Amino acid sequence: MRVSGIQLAYTDDESVEDRITRVCALVRAQHDVDLVVLPELWSAGGFSYREWGTRAETVEDGPTVTALKQAAKDLGAYVHAGSIIEATPEALDRIRAHGHDMTAMPVLPDGERGIWNTSVLIDPTGEVVATYRKIHRFGFGNGEPKLLEAGEDIVTVPIEVGGRTVTLGLATCYDFRFPELFRALLDAGTEVAVVPAAWPAPRVREWSLMARARAVEDEIAVVAVNTAGYHARTQMGGHSVILDASGTELAQAGVDETVLTADIDIDAIHARRAAFPVLRDRRL
Ligand SMILES: NC(=O)CCC(=O)C(=O)O
């Protein structure tokens, strides 16, 4: 399975409309790939909390997913859209009622907000085939936990690549710090974990460590696509990486905007599990 990760750099100066146009051109330029992966919240801004209110959208007809559906269809490949600030129509009304400033909204109980950090997988015909609402929200009481609802569901999705079915497991950024999620994704059949991110530079060493740890401990391939650039007064860490099931780098990026591409051998994942059957020794 050939995968391209677009480690996108952006700044506060770029309009969302211009960024969507730029990203769709990058997606369309990824010829001869099976899957293209974008970073977390690349259109809304990973740390642009004050702008999230004007950039919240529905999966069904928001600008980000609508544009990427067409790009996926034009390319004829799966596109993991990274993630969006997903809001129900009712939540959008609430946001409007507060002048599009989510930070000015009363903090509703967790189960009632209707706003999530949602990743979206689009198939080669341009149809949404899976969504994953980020389970672990980053911010220690501010940012995501204050503004967004936590996802509840573990999501795996079978995709058809080269005449075979490959099972993707979906996670997002901060989720990397919770190995139990990846063990649950493994138990649900995951062969390749796809992890979009907006991970800042000061902690990028931990990002790199955990991407490799999840690949090694669960014997899964990992496609970890981070953000680059500087926005919302946050320097982003880059260092996206595509790993095989032994944690070996198939492709890796530095700190700049980069497209990294690799061929993931799905048979090699199962060969690794047979040759080094550590998972059979699980006792808990
Ligand atoms: N967007 C994120 O989830 C950031 C996570 C992060 O910076 C960390 O875990 O450290």
What does this structure look like?
This protein is an alpha/beta fold and 284 residues long. It has a single domain, classed as Nitrilase/N-carbamoyl-D-aminoacid amidohydrolase (4-Layer Sandwich), CATH 3.60.110. 27% of the residues lie in helices and 27% in strands. The strands form 3 sheets. Strands 6-5-4-3-1-15 form a 6-stranded mixed beta sheet. β11 and β12 form a beta hairpin. The protein is globular. The model has no long low-confidence stretch (mean pLDDT 97). The ligand NC(=O)CCC(=O)C(=O)O binds at residues 40, 46, 138, 173-174, 177, 198-200, 203.
Main traits of this protein?
284 residues; 6-stranded mixed sheet; Nitrilase/N-carbamoyl-D-aminoacid amidohydrolase
Number of self-contained structural domains: 1
Strands, count: 15
**Separation, N- and C-terminal Cα atoms:** 32 Å
- The average pLDDT score comes to 97
Beta strand %: 25-35%
Listed once per kind, the bound small molecules are: ligand LYUYDEPV
Specify the number of helices: 8
Helix and strand layout, with pairings?
Layout: E1 2-7, E2 9-10, H1 16-28, E3 35-37, H2 52-55, H3 63-75, E4 78-87, H4 89-97, E5 115-122, E6 128-133, H5 144-147, E7 156-161, E8 164-170, H6 179-187, E9 192-196, H7 204-218, E10 221-225, E11 228-231, E12 234-235, E13 241-243, E14 249-252, E15 258-263, H8 266-275
Parallel strand pairs: 1-3, 2-11, 3-4, 8-9, 9-10
Antiparallel strand pairs: 1-15, 4-5, 5-6, 7-8, 10-13, 11-12, 13-14
Bound molecules: ligand LYUYDEPV.
